[in-house]
Design brief:
By secondary structure, the chain is of the alpha+beta class. The chain is built from three helices and seven strands, in the order ααββαβββββ. The strands form two sheets. It has a five-stranded mixed β-barrel. Strands 1-2 form a two-stranded antiparallel ribbon. Strand 1 and strand 2 form a beta hairpin. It is globular.
């Protein structure tokens, strides 16, 4: 009976570990189309989310990456990048699939430094219409490592 309990616990632990997909891998499958925005009077890259990614909406996703020192009104969220600042979407030419907006459930008390490597998990939201925000958003997020 002890072996059964131990095996059952291993299955539960393994399931919970694999239940959180690594977000950057799934984000990278997103294709982008150039579309003209009448309101802004310019062209923008608009995401075409995969069905795999759409299935993750509202589910917990984990990300590891670099804190970007981007000025956000009211510090409502932070920007996390797959790459350090010198290589990120804003400065280094990486694609929009390499950044995510992270809104914490409870704001961490520690201040982050530019390019600080952190790990977060949160519920995934996708954005393909609001030009004021990124395409990949983690809400109700928690800091799980730095």
């Amino acid at each position: 009976m002890k072996n059964f309990s131990f095996s059952f616990c291993l299955i539960l632990v393994s399931t919970s570990v694999f239940a959180q997909p690594e977000g950057w891998t799934v984000f990278a499958k997103t294709k982008f189309e150039t579309k003209y925005n009448e309101k802004a009077a310019e062209y923008f890259m608009v995401p075409v989310f995969t069905s795999e990614l759409k299935l993750l909406v509202g589910k917990e996703v984990s990300l590891e990456g670099y804190y970007m020192p981007i000025d956000v009104d009211g510090n409502a969220y932070i920007i996390l990048s797959k790459y350090p600042y010198s290589q990120c979407f804003f400065c280094g030419g990486a694609g929009p699939e390499s950044i995510a907006e992270v809104t914490f459930k409870i704001k961490p008390t520690a201040k982050f430094e530019a390019d600080q490597y952190i790990r977060v998990k949160g519920k995934l939201k996708l954005n393909d219409t609001d030009l004021e925000h990124g395409n990949f958003l983690l809400v109700d997020a928690e800091l799980i490592g730095k």
